[in-house]
Write a structure and sequence with these properties.
By secondary structure, the chain is mainly α.
Length: 295
Amino acid sequence: MNNAKLLVVLAFFAIYVIWGSTYLFNKIAVTALPPFFLASIRFISAGVLIMIISKILKYKIAITKKQFLNTLIAGFLFLVYGNGVFVWALRYVDSGFAALLAATQPLFVLFLMRLIDRKPMQKKSIIGVLLGLLGMYLLVSQKNIATSEGSVLGIFMIFTCVLSWSYGSVFVSKADLPKNFFVSTGYQMLTAGTLLFFGSLLFKETWISPLNWSEDVQLSMAFLIFFGGIVAFTSFNYLLKNVSTEKVATSAYINPIVAMLLGWYVLDERLSLQSIIASAVLLTGVYFINSRKRR
C-alpha cells in the first residue's frame, strides 16, 4: 500500500471510529457544561494547538482574504451550526440516537449534489437513498421517542445540523481553501470557536472554570480537542479534497454504530431491537453508495 492510500485509510478510520466516539464524550461534557461554551473552548483550544504545531513544522500560515472568508463559511457550517447546535440538542436525545439521525447526511449530500451540480443519481445511489429513508422511518417511528420531553425539538434541530454539515461538505469540496489541510482545519477551528464564544455570551451561558470540571468532563474535553478536533477534523478536510464527497459522507453511517455501542455500554442508554434493525438497514445503504461506479 502506497503512502497516499495509507493516508486515506487512516483518515477514514479517524472519521469513522474517532468521530463515532465523540457523541459519547459530547454527551458526558454537555451534561455539566453549557453547549456553546463547551464547543467554543473545544475549537479555540484545538485551533491554537494546530497553529502552534503548524509553526513548529514551518507550514505556510498566511492565507488570502478569499481563503479566510471560505474558512469562515466552512467553520460556521461545520462547527458553529453543524456541531455547536448538535451538542445543544444532545441535552434532549441519547447520544446513540442522535448519531443515527446524523446518518441521514449521505442522503442530504446526494440530494444537494443533484440540486447544485445537476448530477444524475445512479441506480445504486437511489437504492442507498431508499434504504436510508427506510432506516430513518424505523428509527423515528419508535413510540418511546415521541413521548420524551424535548425530544421532538431535539430531533428537528439535529436534522437542520445535518443539512448544514452536508452543505458544508459540498462547499468545501469546491472552495478555495488553504492548500495545507492542517492549516485549513486550524483556521476553521479558530473562526468557529470565536463565533461560538460570542454565541455563548449572547445566550448568557454560565461559564465554568476547567478547575471546577469533574474528571470525566476534563477527560472528555481532552479527547474532543485532540482526537475529535485535531485528528478527525483534519482527516475529514483531507478526504474532502481526495475522495468523492458522497464517500466521505458515509462516515455518518458508521458513526452511529460506534456511538450506539458506547452509549449502551458506558451510559446505559437503551438499545432497542428496532434501533439495531434501523442501523443494519442504514449500513446496507453505505454498501450501495460506496459500490456505485465513479463517473
